[in-house]
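In the current project phase, the collection of sequences with tokenised folds has grown. One resulting record follows, to show the layout:
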Amino acid sequence: MDQEQILARITAMVDDERRLRDALTSGQIDSETEQERLGQLERELDQCWDLLRQRRAKSEFGENPDEARVRPSSQVEDYQS
């Protein structure tokens, strides 16, 4: 995935997050379902942000950004901002 594709994916996931919250508010889904789906989205978002940061760092230091790889969610979830 290139930078534009990653950003598009992030935007789509943020939109999904809003739809989930709206679905809970309107009673279309229950809180448990919302939390389960939000948890998955958050893990995927963490991975996308990590991949984007990897690509940018590689570019900045003259490396090939296409060598950046998606890391397991268990690894990127523990990062501190």
Observations:
- The chain has a mean pLDDT of 93.
- The two ends are 23 Å apart (CA to CA).
